[in-house]
């Protein structure tokens, strides 16, 4: 199982059966399909690339082309039971605004991020003094879509600033996953490669 | 063209209960000419209605008796096709105001015993949909699995969804708009003026006068046809190539292939379409404005709707461009509707929805399958 699949499995586990879901940045619908098959959700996808939207629709998944930065404002308050933003927030123009929107339109939201505080990234930068390239963050600084990377601690700080409640955190490292009720501890910011947050306003 | 009703080999439904129209008048005897494909299942849950466009007809997937050509959506509808007639019962009715058997300007007005001509009331998209609803009630179908249509067909789909939300499970408006724009109206006005400028139109009474405004109608068709294509498709298909000659003629014959093509389009159209019908139907499209008819914003019209929507547009369509379709998508999303939107990369212009676009077919197939799975149709 690669990391991406683990992320998908864990997010699926956080979603309640039969709920109404919006997957922001749904790609070709892998997560939506998993949620439909295993949690019988009523899912909607929002995806930047039309080609991927078309792929979703061909599979019988509901999806529209749209931009997380500009199109979340379309949706009414609390119109979804849960809004999911998987491995996408770091690629948006205004993560703060998106976070506000997520908990506005969703009764709950699930956000997963690659952790820039991960020790290998720190070490990489400390030793080479160059923008770190890892398996998860494999682009060069000049061609990366990830323009707003953050660490687990950064994310927790922003939630605190916005009065967003972190109900649950799952921290993934290469060989294990650790769940926390509420925010994770400081060690996760060092050892965690990725984190999944269940949040609400 | 011959105006005899029942001359077209298809099904007919006649309703003597008057159909009240949006303009306040009524049609006292309504006839709906329609074709159907596939079989209606026991619990009548597999019916799909397909609404045709301006120059379309009920011969969706069967040989057109006037042109002897395959149905206009043969590619999409049939056994094993995206709209699979092995699974679904597909209905396509000639629109109210049309000229292929449904009540329209060429029909006999029961109160005078003569053809309606310009005495036919000005109808709207919503009148067309109400006529189709009569047919659906006659067939005793409570719930349509889907209502599908492109262009003017898409307008009817939107009207269906707005007026009869509890009678449809899903809706697929394609390459359409929630209202006619100034540009849309402008092109239609060109067509109408061409028809009415033809002396053979005889003030609309050409049937009585024994004339036929074929010149006017064919110019209307030529104008409209250009709006269905795109510069890219015209360039690809014709460029500046000459028709059967090496050099330009320094005259006004059809030197260029595009001229010859358009003339052919115009000429063949008059064999299968009635000029007054063309006036009435284009008018119905111009009057189409969903928000105005329903006195609500698009979002309010579809707020909390249970209908599952698929909206499709084509990048090369400048008549009903993606932006117009996206406006509907946004309104639906804002109303919390279950909506999908595909924008298909194509340089074929508005007509792309009728042509070979595999990505579009896949989206149609996927969407309809998911709707029928949810409705538990095997």
Protein topology:
The complex is a heterodimer of chains A (201) and B (378).
Chain A: H1 3-14, E1 20-24, H2 30-39, E2 42-47, H3 50-58, E3 63-65, H4 68-71, E4 80-86, H5 95-105, E5 106-114, H6 119-128, H7 152-161, E6 165-172, E7 177-181, H8 186-191, E8 194-200
Parallel strand pairs in A: 1-2, 1-4, 2-3, 4-5
Antiparallel strand pairs in A: 5-8, 6-7, 6-8
Helix pairs in contact in A: 1-2
Chain B: E1 11-15, E2 19-20, E3 26-27, E4 30-37, E5 47-51, E6 77-78, E7 83-84, E8 89-93, E9 108-109, E10 114-115, H1 125-138, E11 146-150, H2 152-163, E12 170-174, H3 182-197, H4 206-209, H5 214-228, H6 231-237, H7 257-270, H8 275-287, H9 290-294, H10 298-301, E13 308-314, H11 322-334, E14 338-344, H12 358-374
Parallel strand pairs in B: 5-8, 5-11, 6-7, 11-12, 12-13, 13-14
Antiparallel strand pairs in B: 1-4, 2-3, 4-8, 9-10
Explain the overall architecture.
- The complex is a heterodimer of chains A (201) and B (378).
- Chain A has helices at 3-14, 30-39, 50-58, 68-71, 95-105, 119-128, 152-161, 186-191; strands at 20-24, 42-47, 63-65, 80-86, 106-114, 165-172, 177-181, 194-200.
- In chain A, strand 2, helix 3 and strand 3 (63-65) form a beta-alpha-beta unit.
- Chain A is globular, with a radius of gyration of 16 Å.
- Chain A has 201 residues and is an alpha/beta fold.
- Chain A contains eight helices and eight strands; from the N terminus they run αβαβαβαβαβααββαβ.
- In chain A, 36% of the residues lie in helices and 25% in strands.
- Chain A has one domain (3-200): Rossmann fold, CATH 3.40.50.
- Chain B is of the alpha/beta class and 378 residues long.
- Chain B folds into two domains: 11-180 and 289-374, Rossmann fold (3-Layer(aba) Sandwich), CATH 3.40.50; 185-282, Orthogonal Bundle (Rna Polymerase Sigma Factor, Chain: A).
- Chain B has twelve helices and 14 strands.
- Chain B has helices at residues 125-138, 152-163, 182-197, 206-209, 214-228, 231-237, 257-270, 275-287, 290-294, 298-301, 322-334, 358-374; strands at residues 11-15, 19-20, 26-27, 30-37, 47-51, 77-78, 83-84, 89-93, 108-109, 114-115, 146-150, 170-174, 308-314, 338-344.
- An eight-stranded mixed beta sheet of chain B has the order 1-4-8-5-11-12-13-14, sandwiched between helices. Chain B has a two-stranded antiparallel ribbon with strand order 2-3.
- In chain B, helix 3 (182-197) packs antiparallel against helix 5.
- Classes of the chains: A alpha/beta (201), B alpha/beta (378).
- Chain A binds chain B through residues 42, 44, 50, 53-54, 56-65, 71, 74-76, 79, and chain B through 308, 310, 329-330, 333-336, 338-345, 359, 362-363, 365-367, 369-370, 373.
């Amino acid at each position: 199982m690669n990391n991406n699949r683990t992320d998908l499995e864990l997010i699926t586990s956080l979603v309640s059966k039969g709920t109404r879901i919006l997957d922001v940045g749904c790609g070709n619908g892998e997560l939506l399909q998993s949620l439909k098959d295993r949690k019988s959700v009523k899912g909607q996808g929002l995806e930047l690339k039309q080609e991927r939207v078309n792929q979703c629709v061909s599979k019988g998944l509901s999806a529209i082309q749209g931009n997380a930065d500009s199109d979340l404002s379309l949706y009414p308050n609390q119109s979804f039971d849960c809004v999911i933003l998987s491995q996408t927030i770091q690629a948006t123009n205004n993560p703060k605004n998106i976070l506000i929107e997520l908990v506005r339109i969703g009764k709950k939201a699930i956000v997963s991020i690659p952790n820039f505080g991960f020790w290998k990234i720190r070490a990489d930068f400390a030793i080479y003094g160059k923008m770190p390239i890892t398996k998860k963050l494999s682009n060069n600084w000049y061609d990366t879509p990830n323009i707003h990377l953050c660490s687990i601690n950064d994310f927790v700080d922003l939630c605190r600033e916005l009065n967003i409640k972190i109900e649950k955190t799952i921290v993934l490292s290469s060989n294990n996953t650790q769940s926390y009720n509420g925010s994770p501890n400081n060690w996760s910011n060092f050892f965690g490669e990725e984190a999944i947050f269940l949040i609400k306003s | 063209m011959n105006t005899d009703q029942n001359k077209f080999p298809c099904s007919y439904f006649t309703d003597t209960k008057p159909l009240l129209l949006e303009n306040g008048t009524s049609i006292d005897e309504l006839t709906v000419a329609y074709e159907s494909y596939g079989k209606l299942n026991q619990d009548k849950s597999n019916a799909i209605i397909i609404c045709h466009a301006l120059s379309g007809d009920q011969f969706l997937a069967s040989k057109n008796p006037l042109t002897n050509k395959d149905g206009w959506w043969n590619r999409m509808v049939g056994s094993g096709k995206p709209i699979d007639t092995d699974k679904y019962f597909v209905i396509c009715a000639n629109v109210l105001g049309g000229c292929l058997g449904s009540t329209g300007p060429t029909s006999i007005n029961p109160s005078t015993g003569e053809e309606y001509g310009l005495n036919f009331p000005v109808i709207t998209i919503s009148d067309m949909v109400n006529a189709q609803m009569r047919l659906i009630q006659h067939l005793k179908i409570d719930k349509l699995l889907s209502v599908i249509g492109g262009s003017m067909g898409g307008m009817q789909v939107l009207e269906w969804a707005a007026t009869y939300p509890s009678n449809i499970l899903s809706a697929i408006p394609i390459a359409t708009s929630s209202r006619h724009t100034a540009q849309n109206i402008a092109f239609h006005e060109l067509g109408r003026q061409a028809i009415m400028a033809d002396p053979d139109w005889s003030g609309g009474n050409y049937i009585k006068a024994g004339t036929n405004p074929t010149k006017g109608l064919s110019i209307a068709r030529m104008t409209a046809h250009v709006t269905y294509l795109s510069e890219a498709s015209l360039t690809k298909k014709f460029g500046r190539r000459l028709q059967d000659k090496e050099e330009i003629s320094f005259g006004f014959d059809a030197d260029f292939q595009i001229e010859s093509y358009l003339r052919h389009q115009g000429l063949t159209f008059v064999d299968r379409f009635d000029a007054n019908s063309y006036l009435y139907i284009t008018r119905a499209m111009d009057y189409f404005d969903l928000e105005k008819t329903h006195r609500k914003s698009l979002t309010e019209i579809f707020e909390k709707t249970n209908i599952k929507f698929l909206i499709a547009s084509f990048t090369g369509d400048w008549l009903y461009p993606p932006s117009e379709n996206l406006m509907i998508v946004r309104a639906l999303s804002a109303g919390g509707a279950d909506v999908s939107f595909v924008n298909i990369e194509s340089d074929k212009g508005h007509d792309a929805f009728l042509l070979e676009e595999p990505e579009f077919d896949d989206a149609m197939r996927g969407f309809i399958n998911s709707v029928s799975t949810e409705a538990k149709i095997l």
